Amino acid sequence: MRVFITGGTGVIGSAVIAELLTHNHAVLALARSEASADAARKAGAEPIAGALTDLGVLRAGAAQADGVIHLAFSNDFSSPEALARGVAEETAALTALGEALIGSRRPLVTVSGTPWIAGRASTEADPLPLDGPVGGRGRTVNAILGLAEQGVRSSSIRLPRTVHNNGNGGFAGLLTNIARQSGVSGYPGNGTQRWPAVHALDAAVLFRLALEHAEAGTAWHAVADEGDAVRDIASVIGRRLGLPVQSVAPETYGPLGPIFAADQPASSAHTRQELGWTPTHPSLLADLENLQP
């Protein structure tokens, strides 16, 4: 299969490209810079010059592919306005990709976060949040899944709060970066809230499985660790970096503060059973041991 991918040079995207190539797929990778294009070539993909805002490039990439995987996001969480711009940019990009595939029966695999449900681990059957800091992403993903009625084999991989590799990536990576900058490995509130996690190499396998096999309009959970207490995550970070560990105000994390403070475990039992997905790589707490001071 010839696959067009956005966000192919990040922690997750680079793992997805390697997984696709290992299973005899060809990859076209959106590249917004020459450095990204070089990285794509070195990984074995064919770069297509353009940014997520270049909607014509996205439509052309989708048109010449047998399937599409969308991973790109601005990842600017510095303010509510920056986050909103990133969501709007992604919405326009996904809309363009979806329109290019209408009637084709080709797969479009997109991404969201796992939802949080009071008192229990969320499942694939639970709805995405449609309000709050990331509500716009939920509404967009729902619209893409709705394209199943217009001949697109759309599916969504719900990623946990941390997708990691060698101790880097995801919300745990943000905690690490903030710890390095502030000199304190902090956690919001009492730190008992739980975050799900997955190794990037395990997540990559699920993206491939969804591309190849997922039915139209379906959502899947890329969850290996159902929920690690944030205080435990911060404790490993603090120990590896030689920093004190303590509670900090949720406002420390800007527009993500309410999400960071929420208890949000998630299950992947349905995904494992239906798609035969079996995570095999290190857990988050084990992987964080790779952090260098």
Automatic annotation (TrEMBL):
Gene Ontology CC annotation, any one: cytoplasm
Annotated ranges, domain NAD-dependent epimerase/dehydratase: 3-218
CDD domains: SDR_a7 (cd05262)
Disordered, as annotated region: 264-293
One Gene Ontology term of the molecular function aspect: aldehyde dehydrogenase (NAD+) activity
PANTHER family on file: PROTEIN YEEZ, PUTATIVE-RELATED
Protein name: SDR family oxidoreductase
Species the sequence originates in: Ancylobacter pratisalsi
Organism taxonomic ancestry: Bacteria, Pseudomonadati, Pseudomonadota, Alphaproteobacteria, Hyphomicrobiales
